[in-house]
Write a structure and sequence with these properties.
Helix 4 crosses helix 5, helix 5 runs antiparallel to helix 6 and helix 5 runs parallel beside helix 7. 21% of the residues are buried. This protein has a 3-stranded mixed β-sheet. The N and C termini lie far apart (75 Å). It is mainly α. The chain has a domain of 49 residues. The radius of gyration is 21 Å and the shape is elongated.
Length: 209
């Protein structure tokens, strides 16, 4: 067994060594080293969130983070489930756990593929673009697609929210500008956004000619 303390309150977990070392390269190297962590079988994870670590432990032993909401036409709580997965992905990157990252990626993709589009929250964009690793996760792809799909919708009129999400992260704003420029160059008959306001006029003009 190994003992793990998670700060700042140093909450303690006692976990089977083989179970956790099988899922984390970082922790395996620590507990199997000749140094203090290896001899004492104890480690402190500084600055980690105890709630996220508790979800990680549940996953280690076969449980999965439960969705706090189900699709019923209201997206007001969907972002909370997303934030749980973002936190797990950040933690997985820190402890070098590719199995956990794969689980998070698969869970997120499955969840996103079964619900309609909705406008993203500032909290999501900030966390994904400022804290989550930029590679090997579908977070940015889905977020950007949702934002663009909403903006290209001819009925879009929530410019206050648009201003908030485009100013909350420099990384997101830069990527959004790039995507918008590239989309302007896409021929109207190759656009995959239904009713896209950018290409709708060109489509109608071609139909009349």
């Amino acid at each position: 067994m190994v003992t793990i303390y998670v700060s700042p309150k140093k909450k303690r977990w006692i976990i089977h060594e083989a179970v956790i070392c099988n899922k984390s390269t970082y922790l395996r190297n620590a507990f199997q080293s000749p140094f203090t962590e290896g001899t004492s079988k104890t480690i402190t994870l500084q600055g980690e969130d105890a709630a996220v670590f508790n979800l990680f432990v549940s996953w280690l032993y076969g449980a999965t983070p439960r969705r706090r909401c189900t699709w019923s036409g209201d997206d007001s709580d969907s972002w909370k489930y997303h934030m749980v997965l973002y936190g797990l992905d950040i933690f997985a990157d820190k402890i070098c756990s590719q199995p956990l990252r794969d689980f998070v990626s698969d869970s997120y993709s499955e969840w996103m593929d079964e619900r309609p589009d909705f406008m993203r929250r500032v909290e999501e964009i900030e966390m994904v673009y400022e804290e989550c690793p930029a590679f090997a996760t579908p977070f940015r792809l889905y977020i950007m697609d949702d934002v663009l799909r909403g903006f290209f919708n001819p009925e879009f009129d929530d410019f206050e929210s648009w201003g908030d999400i485009t100013s909350c992260s420099k990384a997101f704003a830069g990527e959004l500008r790039k995507e918008l420029r590239e989309h302007m160059e896409v021929p109207w008959d190759c656009c995959y956004y239904s009713g896209c306001v950018i290409h709708e006029a060109a489509s109608k003009a071609t139909s009349r000619s």
